[in-house]
Amino acid sequence: MAYSLDNARPLLAVALILLVAWLLSEEKRRFPLKLTIGALAVQAGLVLALFAIPNSQALLAGINAAVDGLASATDEGTKFVFGYLGGGDQPFAALPDDAPPPFIFGFRVLPLILVISALSALLWHWKILKWITRGFGFLFEKTMGLGGASALAVAANIFMGMVESPIVIRAYLDKLTRAELFLMMVVGLATVAGSTMVAYAIILQPVLPNAAGHVLVASIISAPAGVLLARIMIPEQQGEGAGYDYSSDLKYENATDAIAQGVSSGVMVAVNVASFLIVFVALVWIVNNLLGLFPPLITGEKPTLQLLFGYLFAPVAWLIGAPWSEAVAAGKILGTKLFLTEFIAFIDLGAIPVDAMSERTRMILTYAICGFANIASIGIMTGGMTALMPERRPEILSLAWKSLAPGFMATLMTAAIVASLPAGLFAK
Is 100:75 a contact under the CB 8 Å cutoff? Predict the structure, then answer.
């Protein structure tokens, strides 16, 4: 396993992220040193456990095979409903017989969200996902000192997303302290939902080996980073947040009810994703056309929103591990993730040809953008939480925008931790 300055530089990024969080802290005299060591150890330990242990590559290959199987099953359902638009037989000779079906986002990715959402609800009803979530909750409780409800909410965020996870602990929402509420927001923005996680993997699969494994690991190990940054910015008061158990308020009557509610939730997610993509792509087109009225930059390039993102976030991309030669291209992806959505960022990352970006940089960016922390998500999160906790609406609104910075920095911190590890660890 090779180790170089490219692996050491991201450690500086981790230190700078912790410094920024401390500067934004409400109580700068209470820096959680023990939690910092524990969170970093949990992140590094989970990466090593998932990539370095014997037969770990077989496990990741199994994850990718499972994603392929889900995608294939979804394709069959999509073909049945949408015919050739969903990859079925062409009504005319538009493509050679041996050519792959056209990749139409609305018919290849959005249906996958429905299937995963229904499957997640079914696995929760069968207590499979519930016990996995409790296992992670127990890990976070013991290593980072979280109360039962907070630990369970943090673990649920890994698989269920920022709107669904509060439902898991609905019975405890009125008991959450301000610090715990903020922590739940930050972790929600630092992770992604299982329904979208698989969609990201499908988008990256053609250009990144073990894409599904990386996306899954990214969502898992960003949770401790979110906990740490949230605790630095708003420390928990002494004696608060203790004594909660792991009981959950999320229940289904039977398997049929779980599938029905899962599909219903998936429809809302799919519609939201499609709507935001339509609107944000349209807005980017408008802004880029307006920027086209300005003269070319010093480099001779035509100004675009993505190019401005590239120059603005290039130093950040370089700090977390990307080589300077690829920093502008990587910066475009980071800026797109923060100001547009992570879905557009994943689509743009997947569209970069294999020979135009190194596999290591592409892997680092996968971890850096695998989280819901973007401007649009603030509206989604506040809408979902205020519906569950209308009596805490002012408190939620006051904390929402404050949670965006640590949510974004958490995924950057995750990417930096991964980039600091020897490159040979992630060999195919």
Answer: no
